[in-house]
Amino acid sequence: MSEWDDDISALDMSDVEKNGLQVYRNYTKAFERDQAKKFAIEVNSESHDVSRLSKVCDAIACDDERLVPLIACAFADEALDEMYKREVPKGIPGGRDSLFSGYGPFSSLSKRIQVAYAFGWMSEDILKDMDSLRKVRNKFSHLWDHESLSGYAEQAPTSDITPIETMFKEHDERLLLAGVETLDALGRLRIRTIWLLGRLYYESLLYPLALKRRLQPYVVLYGEHQPDLLSQIAGVCSECTRKVLKGKI
After folding, report:
1. Could you please report the per-residue DSSP string of 77-142?
2. What is the pLDDT of residue 17?
3. What confidence score (pLDDT) does residue 8 get?
4. Looking at residues 168-197, what average pLDDT do you find?
5. Number of neighbouring beta carbons within 10 Å of residue 11
6. CA dihedral in degrees (194, 49, 70, 109; nearest 10)?
7. Number of domains the chain is built from
8. Are residues 109 and 24 in the same domain?
9. Residue-number span of the structural domain to which 2 is assigned
10. 53 & 139 share domain
11. Are 179 and 243 in contact (CB under 8 A)?
12. pLDDT value of residue 249
C-alpha cells in the first residue's frame, strides 16, 4: 500500500507501519459507516410525530417577543423530562419518581440541563444556549415590569446564542438561513431559537440511543447516513424560518 492519508504519510514511521495504520483507519471508517447505516435503518423503522415541534416553532416565530424564552423553556423542559423518563432504568432505590420531584436531579429545567451536560447526553452548545434562555425566562418571571426587559434580544445572554446560520453555512440557501444576518436582533433570536429547539428535540430522542449503541452521536445523527427524522425536523424549522423572514423583509 502506497496511498496514505496526508497525516499518516507525514509520520516518521516505516512503510510497513504506515500501511498497518492506514489499514486500521480504513477498517475503522468502514465499520463506522456500516454502523451508521444500521442506526439510521433502526430509527427510520419507527414513526416520529413532529407536529408538537411544529406548533412550538410556529409560536416562536409569531408570538409576542416576551413569550419566546418562556415558550422555548417550557418545550425544552418537557423534551428533557421525556428523555430522562425513557432512559432512566426502573428499579432505582427509592423509586424513579423521586428523581423527578422535590430536590431530585431531574426536578427542574436547570438540573436537567446540568445532568445532561455532565454526562454528555446532548451537544454542549444546545445545553448552554438553553441555559441562556432559561436565565432570561427567570428574569421575566420575577419582574412585573416587563418593559424593563425591552431589547433583551440584543443583550447577553440571548445575544450569545449560537448563530445557526454560521453552523450550516454550506446549506444556508436550502435551509433559508441566508437571510438571517439581515434581521434585527429579535428576528435572529426567533430563528436561532427555532433551530435550537429542533436540534434539542432531535437529540433528546436519538443522542442517548446512539450512546447506548456505543456509537459517536454526532457521526450517526448528522453524518452521511443521518436518519430521515433530521430532514423532517429541518423542514419544520425551515418553514418557521420562512415565516420570520417574511415578517421582517
Report:
1. HHHHHHHHHHHSPS--TT-THHHHSTT-TTSSHHHHHHHHHHTT-S-HHHHHHHHHHHHHHHHHHT
2. 84
3. 81
4. 81
5. 12
6. -110
7. 2
8. no
9. 1-46
10. yes
11. no
12. 43
